Amino acid sequence: MTPSSPSLDPAQCAALLRQAKSAVALTGAGVSTGAGIPDFRGPNGLYVTRRYDPELVFSIDHFRKDPRMFYEFTRDFMGTLQKVKPTFTHRFLARLEGLGMLKGVVTQNIDALHRYAGSRRVVEIHGSYWSATCISCRGAAAQAKSYEWWEESIRKSPRSPVLCCGTCGGVIKPDVVFFGEAVRGFEEAVQMVEGCDLLLVLGSSLAVYPAASLPQLTRAAVVLVNKGGVALAPAANRFFVEARLDDYFSQVAERLGIAIETA
Ligand code: CNA
Predict the structure, then answer these.
(1) Does the CB atom of residue 107 touch ligand 1 within 6 A?
(2) The CATH number of the domain where 223 resides is what?
(3) Were 212 and a residue from 145, 163, 180, 206 both cysteine, which residue would form a disulfide, CB within 3.0 to 4.6 Å?
(4) Per residue in 15-38, pLDDT tens?
(5) Domain boundary among 113, 141, 176
(6) What number is the average pLDDT over the span 3-21?
(7) Are residues 17 and 122 in the same domain?
(8) For the residues 129-143, what does the mean pLDDT come to?
(9) Is 85 left (phi over 0), alpha (psi -120 to 50) or beta?
(10) Which domain holds residue 245?
C-alpha cells in the first residue's frame, strides 16, 4: 500500500481499540465487496469492468437529461442487494458500537449495509436509497425505504424502468449523492473525526473528496486497512495495513475476545 509507512498487526489494532474512548470508523466500498457488491476502483470495480460508467451513471447533469441509464444500474444493483448480507466487518463495527468501543460510522457507501448490520450512528455522506425525492416538485417519495420497494417498483414497469412522481409526474431520484451534488451530514462527520481518539479508515482508496479530507483532520492514530493504494501521505500517526478487511478484523475480534455470529 504505502511500503515506507508503518503497519499494524491485529493484536496492536486490538490494543488501540481497547484503549480508545472515542473511536470512529470511516468506511468505503471495500467494506462491502465481501458481500458481493463491486467497488469502483478494485479489480472488479466499475472503473475497471466498465459495465456502467460511474461518472455517467452518477452524474446529476446526465440524470436530468436522461435517467434511464441510472435506472438500469439501479435495477441491477437492487437485484444484487437483495441477495447480500452485511459482512463480518459490518457486523464487527456494529458490535463495537454496542459495546461502547466505537462512537459511530461515517460511510461513503450507499448500500445501507451498516444499518442492516445493526450500527446505530451511521452518517451516510453520499446518501442512500433509503429515501427519494421528485426532481421537479421536490416532494418526498414516501414509500422509498427499502431495496424491496425499489426492486418491485422497477420490476413492475419493465418497459420504462424510470419511476415517476405520483403528484406531478416528475422523475424520482433516490437521495444518493451524485457527482455534482453536495454531500450530506458532512458537519457531523467532521465533528466525529475531530473528536475521535482513534480513526479506522476501511476499504477506501480515499480518491473521492471531501470524504478523503477527513483523515487529515485528526492527529489521533489513524489505522487504514485496505487492499491496494490509498491516497494519503504517510505520517507518524498513520498505520497502513494491506489486508482483506474480514480476515484482518476476524483476527482483531479474536484478540478482543469478541465473538461475531456468522450470518
Ligand atoms: P473505491 O475507490 O472503489 O475504493 C475501494 C477500495 O477498497 C479499493 O482500494 C479496493 O482495492 C479496496 N478493497 C476492496 N475490497 C476490499 C477488501 N475486502 N478488503 C480491503 N480492501 C478492499 O471506493 P471508495 O469508497 O473509496 O470511493 C468512494 C465512492 C465509491 C463513493 O462515492 C461510494 O458511494 C462509491 N461506491 C459505493 C458502493 C457501495 O455502496 N457498496 C459500491 C461502489 C462504489
Answers:
(1) no
(2) 3.40.50.1220
(3) 206
(4) 999 999 999 999 999 999 999 888
(5) 176
(6) 89
(7) yes
(8) 83
(9) beta
(10) 1-37+87-126+183-263
Q: In whole angstroms, what is the distance from residue 51 CA to residue 59 CA?
A: 16
> What is the rounded distance in angstroms from the CA atom of residue 201 to the CA atom of residue 8?
13
Q: Would the CB of 110 count as within 6 Å of ligand 1?
A: yes
Euclidean distance between CA atoms 197 and 219, whole angstroms = 8
pTM: predicted TM-score of the whole model, two decimal places: 0.92
**Site of grid cell 485496505:** 226
| φ and ψ of 224, to 5 deg | -105, 115
Q: Is the pLDDT of residue 48 over 70?
A: no
**pLDDT of residue 45 exceeding 80:** no
Residue 25, strand partner residues: 105, 200
The residue contributing the CA closest to ligand 1 atom 31 is 108
Residues carrying an active site annotation: 126
- CA–centroid distance, 118 to ligand 1, in Å, is 20
Please indicate whether residue 207, judged by its CB atom, sits closer than 6 Å to ligand 1: yes
